[in-house]
């Protein structure tokens, strides 16, 4: 055994004690690791949407009334009833109008018959009369020449010549009359024009009577729904008096107010999913049609209008409706829990990521935003542990992950 002098052993013990003191001092000065809650970065399907509440509106409303004064015979609809374009909604008493139409239709038929008679009878007869008159004139002229010659030779008396002259004059007059009558029967003649005018007058009278009868039937101008009814059978319809208030079902819209912070991501044409409070299980499709150029400073909202191209049957004006506007969708993208993002609305958002037991500041690039969830395009990797902003941790702190949870699934951004 090697002998160690007492002085050396004393120095070794002193050195060992000094090292132990230094190590204890360092251990005392080093900060302890903090236990913090963390959220795991994962990939998931993300949908960014804007949800707001509004009311159903029918901008195209028509007040249906009568153009004439008449008694109401029948009302075919009541408030809330739907109808198709052309349906008879109100029938007014039309006894006199139907009688007038029958009378004018008879007069029209007579005018047509007279015109047909003029073409098939009067015109041919006038032509035949003209031909006969021309033949008679030739005979009278020949007889007059023969009689003149015989009188000159002394075979006939002057009386015979006078008779021949009268016959000739009569034949000439008959020819002139026949020619005038035949000209009147030509397509541009007076009789033809009169026949045409009589027919036009009869047609106009029949059309006016038919229009009068039609005005006593109040028909739907479009596909729609009855909003209000102020007409009852037996009542008096007067010009300017509203009998039914109608809404056009082809132009339903939803008016909503969206938080102005979403204004930058709203675009006309965006798809929307709407649900009426009265029918929460029957969603229907709408689309963003109009964005107000002004912002309501009192509420901090911007008015937008959604168009409903195929309204469900249960839809009613002034219904309360919740609408979700789909801003964007991304399949299996890298998502962060919204609670882990610092300065999310600034130009330089960042997160605290746990690496080797130390909290590190990591700038991130954000994309779509859902409820409680944000897409990131750079800065962290799948599986990284992020520290929520609610934890008392700063960059450079030694940390120990505690409860770890995945990012929640997202349905929308909210109002």
Task: Summarize this entry quickly.
It is built from 4 helices and 21 strands. With 415 residues, it is an alpha+beta fold.
Descriptive account of the structure:
33% of the residues lie in helices and 37% in strands. The protein has four domains: 93 residues, conserved putative lor/sdh protein from methanococcus maripaludis s2 fold (Beta Barrel), CATH 2.40.420; 87 residues, Efflux pump adaptor protein, beta barrel domain (Elongation Factor Tu (Ef-tu), domain 3, Beta Barrel); 52 residues, OB fold (Dihydrolipoamide Acetyltransferase, E2P) (Beta Barrel); 119 residues, Four Helix Bundle (Hemerythrin (Met), subunit A) (Up-down Bundle). α2 packs antiparallel against α3 and α2 packs antiparallel against α4. The C terminus is likely disordered. The relative contact order is 0.21. The protein has a six-stranded antiparallel β-barrel with strand order 2-11-14-13-12-15. A five-stranded mixed β-sheet has the order 17-16-20-1-21, with no helix packed on it. Strands 3-10-8-5 form a four-stranded antiparallel β-sheet, with no helix packed on it. It is of the alpha+beta class. A hairpin with a 2-residue loop joins β16 and β17.
Tag the structure with descriptive keywords.
alpha+beta, 4 domains, OB fold (Dihydrolipoamide Acetyltransferase, E2P), 415 residues, 21 strands, 4 helices, conserved putative lor/sdh protein from methanococcus maripaludis s2 fold, Elongation Factor Tu (Ef-tu), domain 3
């Amino acid at each position: 055994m090697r002998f160690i002098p007492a002085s050396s052993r004393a120095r070794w013990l002193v050195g060992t004690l000094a090292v132990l003191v230094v190590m204890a001092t360092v251990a005392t000065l080093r900060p302890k690791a903090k236990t913090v809650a963390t959220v795991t970065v994962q990939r998931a399907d993300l949908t960014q949407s804007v949800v707001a509440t509004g009311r159903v509106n029918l901008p195209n409303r028509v007040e249906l009334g009568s153009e004439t004064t008449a008694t109401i015979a029948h009302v075919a609809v009541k408030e809330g009833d739907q109808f198709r374009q052309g349906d008879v909604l109100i029938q007014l008493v039309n006894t006199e109008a139907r009688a007038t139409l029958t009378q004018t239709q008879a007069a029209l038929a007579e005018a047509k018959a007279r015109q047909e008679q003029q073409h098939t009878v009067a015109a041919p007869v006038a032509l035949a009369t003209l031909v006969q008159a021309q033949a008679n004139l030739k005979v009278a002229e020949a007889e007059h020449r023969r009689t003149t010659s015989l009188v000159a030779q002394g075979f006939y008396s002057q009386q015979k010549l006078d008779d021949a002259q009268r016959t000739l004059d009569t034949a000439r007059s008959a020819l002139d009359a026949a020619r005038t009558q035949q000209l009147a029967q030509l397509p541009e003649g007076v009789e033809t024009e009169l026949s045409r005018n009589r027919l036009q007058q009869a047609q106009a009278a029949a059309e006016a009577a038919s229009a009068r009868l039609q005005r006593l039937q109040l028909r739907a101008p479009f596909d729609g729904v009855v909003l209000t009814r102020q007409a009852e059978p037996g009542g008096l319809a007067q010009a300017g008096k509203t009998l039914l208030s109608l809404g056009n079902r082809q132009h339903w819209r939803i008016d909503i107010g969206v938080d102005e912070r979403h204004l930058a991501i709203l675009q006309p044409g965006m798809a929307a999913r709407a649900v009426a409070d009265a029918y929460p299980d029957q969603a229907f499709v709408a689309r963003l049609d109009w964005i107000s150029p002004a912002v309501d400073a009192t509420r901090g909202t911007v008015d937008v209008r959604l168009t409903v191209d195929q309204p469900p049957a249960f839809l009613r004006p002034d219904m309360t409706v919740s609408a979700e506007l789909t801003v964007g969708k991304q399949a299996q993208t890298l998502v962060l829990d919204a609670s882990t993002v610092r300065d999310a609305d600034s130009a330089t958002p960042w997160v605290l990521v746990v690496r080797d037991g130390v909290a590190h500041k990591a700038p991130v690039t954000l994309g779509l935003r859902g409820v409680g969830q944000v897409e990131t395009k750079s800065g962290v990797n799948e599986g990284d542990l992020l520290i929520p902003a609610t934890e008392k941790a700063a960059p450079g702190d030694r940390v120990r992950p505690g409860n770890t949870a995945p990012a929640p699934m997202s349905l929308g951004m909210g109002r």
